[in-house]
Design a protein that fits this description.
Blueprint (H helix, E strand, L loop, with lengths): L2 H7 L17 H13 L4 H23 L5 H89 L8 H11 L5
Helix pairs in contact: 2-3
Length: about 180
């Protein structure tokens, strides 16, 4: 937000607070208000606040018109003052409307980004699950190959006669007899 905008809004909420006001109104008036709220796509609370504020400022404006001076010079001066006030409010409203529009666009962009990131996260989770399954299969295959390697090394050592195989001591004695040349 620019420095000018900050200065413009510096006093906007000064000494402002919220209060709840329980008010009884006719059901038919509330129904008309609901139709107006729906037509303008406001939520219920926001719509009631807008309707109340518009009615309040309409009545205040009427009161100011009744109290307006009757001579033309004073009336022209009051119209000039009110026109300036209206222009000031309109410029602030235009900035707020633009800012609200920009924030809404950014919100939509963030929403798209969140959906994209959630999808990417889900896919990454699926890939990770597949990688873990592959890792388990590879670990099992490595274990099987290590056992096969040990078995083959033992068999080779038995065939070379370098070390007795634990499960074939009797077979080693037979192999030793076979390797020794016969006398005779």
């Amino acid at each position: 937000m620019s420095q000018d905008s900050r200065e413009m809004y510096a006093g906007l909420f000064k000494d402002t607070s919220l209060t709840d006001v329980p008010v009884q109104i006719l059901e038919e008036e509330l129904e008309k208000a609901r139709h107006l709220i729906e037509a303008n796509q406001w939520d219920q609370r926001e719509g009631l606040q807008i309707i109340f504020s518009n009615g309040l400022y309409y009545l205040l404006g009427e009161a100011q018109l009744r109290e307006a001076p009757s001579d033309d010079g004073a009336l022209a001066q009051e119209v000039k003052r009110l026109t300036g006030e209206l222009m000031d409010m309109q410029s602030k409203y235009a900035v707020m409307k633009f800012r609200a529009f920009s924030l809404n666009q950014e919100k939509q962009t963030l929403g798209f980004n969140v959906v994209g990131l959630e999808t990417e996260n889900r896919w990454s989770g699926e890939r990770l699950k597949k990688f873990r399954e592959d890792e388990e299969l590879l670990r099992a295959e490595i274990g099987r190959l290590r056992r096969e390697n040990q078995r083959l090394q033992q068999r080779l050592s038995v065939l070379e006669g370098t070390a007795p195989a634990p499960q074939a001591k009797r077979g080693n004695r037979l192999l030793g007899r076979l390797r020794r040349p016969r006398k005779g």
